[in-house]
Every structure is written in structure tokens, then in C-alpha cells.
Design goal:
The complex is a heterodimer. By secondary structure, chain A is α+β, with helices and mostly antiparallel strands. Chain A is 51% helix and 16% strand. Chain A has eleven helices and ten strands. In chain A, the strands form two sheets. In chain A, strands 2, 3, 4, 5, 6, 7 and 8 form a seven-stranded mixed beta sheet that branches. In chain A, strand 3 and strand 4 form a beta hairpin. Chain A is globular. The two termini of chain A are 24 Å apart. Chain B is α+β, with helices and mostly antiparallel strands. Chain B folds into three domains: 97 residues, Butyryl-Coa Dehydrogenase, subunit A, domain 1 (Orthogonal Bundle), CATH 1.10.540; 124 residues, Butyryl-CoA Dehydrogenase, subunit A, domain 2 (Beta Barrel), CATH 2.40.110; 151 residues, Butyryl-CoA Dehydrogenase, subunit A, domain 3. Chain B is built from twelve helices and nine strands. In chain B, strands 2-5-6-9 form a four-stranded mixed beta sheet. Chain B has a four-stranded antiparallel beta sheet with strand order 3-4-8-7. In chain B, helix 1 runs parallel beside helix 4, helix 5 packs antiparallel against helix 8 and helix 8 runs antiparallel to helix 9. Chain B is globular. The chains are: A alpha+beta, B alpha+beta. At the A-B interface, strand 1, helix 8, helix 9 and helix 10 of A face strand 1, helix 9, helix 10 and helix 12 of B. Bound molecules: flavin-adenine dinucleotide. Flavin-adenine dinucleotide binds next to strand 2, strand 4 and helix 12 of chain B.
Amino acid sequence: MYSFEPNEEQQMLIDAVGKYAANDLRPAAHDAEESRELPKKLVSKGWELGFLQASTPEAYGGFGERSAVTGALALEEMAFGDLAGALAVLTPSLFATPILLGGSEEQKQEYLPRIVGGDWAPYTAALMEMSFDFDPNALKTSAKADGDNYILNGEKIFVPFAKDAEALIVYANLDGVTQGFIVTKGSAGLSISEEREKVMGLNALPMYRVKLENVSASRLGGASGHDFELILSAMRIASASAAVGVARSSFEYAKNYAKERDAFGVKIAQKQAIAFMLAEMATEIEAMRLLTWEAAWKLDNNKDDAHIAAYLAQTGAADMVMMVTDRGVQIYGGHGYIRENPVELLMRNGRGFSSLLGLVIL
Amino acid sequence: MTIDFETPKPIAQMQTMLQTVAENMMRTTSREFDENEHAIPWGYVEFMHTAMRSMGGGGGLTVTDDKPKEGAEKRPPIGYQKLAAQIEMLSWGDVGYYLITPGGGLGAAAVQAAGNAGQKAKFLARFNDDKPTYAAMCMTEPGAGSDTSAIRARAVLDEKTNEWIINGEKIFVTAGDKSFTEYEKLGKGFVVVWASIDPSAGRSGMRAFVVESGAPGVKVTKLEHKLGIRASDTASISLVDARVPFENILGSPTVEKSTTGFKGAMATFDATRPLVAASGLGVARAALEFLKEKLKENGVEIRYGLPRQKLSNIEREVFDMEIMLKSSWLMVLKAVWMADNKKPNALESSMSKVKAGDVTTKVTQKAVEILGPLGYSREFLLEKWFRDAKITDIYEGTGQINRLVVARQILGYSGAELR
Ligand SMILES: Cc1cc2nc3c(=O)[nH]c(=O)nc-3n(C[C@H](O)[C@H](O)[C@H](O)COP(=O)(O)OP(=O)(O)OC[C@H]3O[C@@H](n4cnc5c(N)ncnc54)[C@H](O)[C@@H]3O)c2cc1C
């Protein structure tokens, strides 16, 4: 049966996250970006909304079941507030969700209650590498079996909160297949850059470079490993729903501005050139939102084409968010180019979706 | 309720059945009726009429919803969803044929939206008769397309005979010939003609009139030769002192300040726009499937999951087409799901049409481009689908007009504030 209506619990979550996004994240976004600093309180307030906690079964200290659909709904709302803030709030999921999806019973018991039961803490993951054609299924970072453990070598980029991380999942190439490995703080051979990564947007999110020289790690899921594709699809759907949120933010700023700004004796929104851009922005946002929901639903329901759907949703949403955030700036005109106004940051953040992966997961 | 994308069983079954019809009855003769414009594929017309009657929908492609079996759990209505899926599948077969599926079409939709109970009883029953029967909608005029306020057709009441006298020139009437001209094999149809009863009142003066087949003073003056959808007749209808019984007016015979008459037409469009979108997407799906099939035959593999930097141009194009098509279909589903659940859907309806107009033209154009000579050759149906597709962005409100509707909705503007 087709339905496009979130259930009651989901609606409550959307409302709660939406409030936090509008009242807390959004007003803080500009200063956070400029000062390259997210207020601690802001992040912990987001954590207290309990998104990860509600996605973790009781057996591991949470109080619910994970659902990619619910995740997509919540993340869209949060990213609407501010992308860097949303990614920071959800960073512990980068570690916890893969464990939930692919970890052994022992790994789940060891880590999940700790993470979901406590305050926000820097658990993270390292997927990306510095190459123009970065491919999560063809990683350069390598893993070699060494008794019960594995030896990792390589270099990872854009790892959120790596500096203080208690533990992180490092994705590496094990005989041609990508697998996650759990690396703990202070492991021999693990070095984390002093300097934070400098990127075009997302400056409020502290990201670091991570070097691995013969680091010993345990494999996610134990000796038999895990299904990386499931994790990858969860990352893709997360990326898509965050893109929808960012696009919606730009659209809303642009729409409101267009109704205020006068030119040639009318509001600019009364000019078709502007109004049609807005109509197309709204249409494309809705199109990609629905595509993302469907992919999430397919993942939740183990449909055969779930991974293809996730891939297409990510690809489509990345195009859409660039188009929308570009137009957001265009509609503001010269004022859009000035950092005091919100739309240029959204454009910088919007461009990231085609390059970045693994900074968020549902 | 919770978010769900599982195709309801009745819809899935219907799709399987119609796919068989499409493959065995439409695709096989698509080319023939594309090349013999204005010829009528009677086989299809009669088969569909019999099939639809036996399904008990009151004749024609209408909103039908099977009652759940005795004792079964009550479920939300899916009539519009089913109709959209039917139209998509028939158009996947051949959109020209789909447009001549017997039934009331836009004419009946206008009666449905603006008629009273007596009128509905009188005019809508005929689609279930023995013979296939048609109805059509006459809004457009040579000087009035998108701008329907420019309609010049006039209706004046002759108080002596209690008849409306209508004068006007209507063009581009889909199924106008089958609705108005008397054919041996067809039942008595009608056209719904939009005319003003008070030109000084602008849109508030606009009314729709049911003009029955064979009415005096009314003539089909031309059948258009078109880029595509050639199996579908597009008629010009002239009305010269045409006489129509008083009771054939849909809506009030007097003009108040309100715009009730016209709102009827607009309500029709809220309901039909996602259906037109669905039709276009059927064509687009046919084109994309054909493209993928030919690529496969030629040893071109489509690899999902790679970063874009590692994709071939063809792969990127195919993914973009899939993204467009899938998301556009979801927008149609959402709009009709809202209609089924009585949620106001003017915005979603128009958005689905904006998107489908774009997607249908882009997907078919790209498919022809990618397949080179195979795309251009009349040996295959792809070039026909490219021609058929373009109408999606034109009728039921052009892409621009639907953008206006969407923009007004999101900006909270009236027609005067954003024209
Ligand atoms: C095959 C076919 C079947 C049809 N079937 C029917 C039918 O059954 N019944 C019926 O009544 N009509 C029917 N039509 C008519 C159809 O709805 C009109 O052609 C359509 O609404 C456009 O009107 P027009 O052709 O006069 O173009 P115009 O209104 O002259 O438009 C020309 C161009 O200007 C643009 N434009 C117009 N106004 C604006 C504006 N305000 N802002 C921006 N751009 C604007 C349009 O988008 C278009 O690109 C059919 C047409 C065709 C081709």
C-alpha cells in the first residue's frame, strides 16, 4: 500500500528535530562556520534529542529499532538547520551504526551501551582518501590478516573529531573487498594530524587526517566480517537526505528574500525568471526527497534493488542540491555573494555532496 | 499510516494484465497507426471497451476501487492510484492508443467536477453502454490557449425556446471527432464546450456546456496532422448558432462575483494533471527500457555503484534518466495518493506535471541521441516515442503554466500578483 505519511512517532521526531534545527542550529550556523567552532552545548542538545538512542535496541542500551526511513526524515530536518552541526551531532553514529549493522555480538555489547548510554562522545569513522576518483569499493588503505587481528596501512582524510576519538572504524581494502576495522585510541602506528582539515565548507566541523602505519585492529563482525554494501547504502541514503535538508534551507531563504526584495516596482518573486527558478527548486527538492524515502524504505525492507536505489538517490540528490543552492545565491543577487547572508555557505556545503561520503550514516 | 512504497496487489495485478494488452495489441500495430494518421484502431477500441465494462467501472478509464472482500480489513482508497498506474502502463504500450481509450475523458471529468446530480446521471451513464462512447473537452480557441480568460465563445439564452445559443471556434479537441461525429460503431457522445455567458464578467462569466453529438450548428471542421500521438484525433469544432438545451449548462446560469464556473475547470485540472504526468512517464519508461535493452544487446554494461569519475558518459546519462524517471513517478504517486485520501493536492498535482513534462521530453530525447541511427530510424518505435512524448509538456497546462501554478502556491501569490 502506498503511503507518504510519516507515522506518529516519526512525526514527533520530525517536529522535535525541526524545532532544534530552526531554533538552535540555524541561528548558530554563520558564526560557527566563521569561527570554525561549534558550541559544545549546541551539539549536546542535539544529542539529547536521542536519535541514535532511539535507533538502538534495548539489548544494547537504547530504546528502539533502527529505520533508514526514520533516519532520513530526521536528518533532512537537522541538515535544514545546519549541515556542520548535524554532522557533528550524528558523528557517534558513524561508529555505532556500522557496529549495529555489521558488528559481532561481542562488539555490540562492548561499544553500543557505552555510546548510547552516555553523553555525546567522539566516536567516529574514516572512509575517504585523497584521490580524485575516490571509490569506497576500491580503497587504497590496506588490511592484512595477522592472526586474529588485522594490520592496517594507509592514509585517511576528513575524519570528524578524530583528534579526541575514543575509537574509530577505519575502512580498508581486504583482498579487494572493503571492510571496516575497529581502531582504538592510542594504537601504535596511528597518527592524527595536528592541523584540522581545511575544506571549502563545513568549517565548523573539526575534521582530521589519519595515518595508519601497521596499526593492529579488529575486524567489524569478527573473523567472518560483514556486508559493507549495507553500510555503504546507509551512508548514501544519509547523504541524500542531508542534501535535501540543505537544499530546502537555501530554497526557503531564497523564497522569503524574493518576496521582500523590490526591483522595477515589484517584488522580484513576481518576476517569472525568479518565480520559475523557485518553482523548479521546490519541484526538484520534492523529487529527491521522495526518491530518498523510497531508497530508505527499500533498505529497511531488504528489497533486491535497495543498493541501486540508494546509489541513485545519492547521485540525484547531489545534483539537485548543487542546482538549488546555486540558485539560492542567484536569487539573492550580489547580496548572495556576501558571507553575512546565509546562502553562500549553503552553496559551499551543497557542492560537497558530490565529493564527500561517509561523513554521516543512518 | 506510515511511509510505504509497496505496490498494492490490485494495482500490481492490473499492471500485469495491461502489460499483456500493451505488448500484444498496442506495440504490434503502433507503427501502422502512426503512419496512417486518422485511421482508427477499432480492434483496440472494442477490446478495451468490452474489457473495461466487464471490470465494472461504469465504462471508460475512471476512478474505480474494488471493495475489500467481506470481513477483510478496511483499507484506504486507491482508486486514483490505480488509474494513474493504468494510464502509465497503457501509455507505455502506446500513448496515442491510450488517448483513444473509450470513455468520458476530460469531458466526463468536467461533468464530474462541475455538474449537478441530475446531469451526472444523465451524461455519465452512457459510457457503460454496448457501444464504445467518447466525450471531450473544448476549452482552447485559436486566440486562447494558456490564457483561458481570452476565450471568445459566447452563450446566449434564448428565452423563447429555453435554449443556449452558442457561437465559437474551438481547436485542439482531443477525441473531439469520436465524441461528436456519429460513427456506426460508437455510441452517442458529447463535447463539453467552455463559453462565456457574460463577457464583462471575465472568468466568473465562463461556463461549460454539454453539447451532444450531432447537435445542430456544430461541426467538426478539421482533424490536425501532428508531430506524434497520431492515433489520437485532435479536432477543430465550430459552433455557429448552435442550440443546446438550458439544462446542459454545468454550474449556475447566472453570474455572481464569485468565480464558481471557472473553479470547476481548475478542479478538473487538479485531478487530471498527475494523470497526464503518468501518461508521459509511461512513454519515458518505454524509451528508457528500449535504450537499456539495446545497450545490453550491444555489449554495453551499466555498472551501478561507481563514483562518477569512473563512469562512462553513457552510464551517467542512463543513471540520470533513471533518477528522473523514478522520482517523477513517485511525485505522481504522491499526488494521486493525496487525491485518494482527500488531501488538497493542487501544488503536488502541478509539480508532478512540471516534472513529468521535463522528464518525458528529456528521457526520450536522450535515448534517441544515445542510440544514434538506431534512435532515428523508423525501424524501431523509439523515434515515435520521442515525437509522442513532447505533448506531455504542452497540454493540460504547458510546463510554464504549471510552473506559474507551483510558484503561486509556494509564494502565496494570486494570479494578479504573478502572471
Ligand atoms: C495534441 C493536443 C491535444 C490537446 N487537447 C486539448 C483538449 O482536449 N482540450 C482543450 O481544450 N485543449 C487541448 N489542447 C490545447 C492545449 O491545452 C493548448 O495548446 C495549451 O494549453 C497551450 O495553449 P496554446 O497552444 O495556445 O499556446 P500559448 O498559450 O499561445 O503559449 C505559447 C507559449 O507561451 C507560453 N506562455 C503562455 N502564457 C504564459 C505565461 N503567462 N507565462 C509564461 N509563459 C507563457 C506557453 O507556455 C507556450 O510556451 C490540446 C493541444 C494539443 C497540441
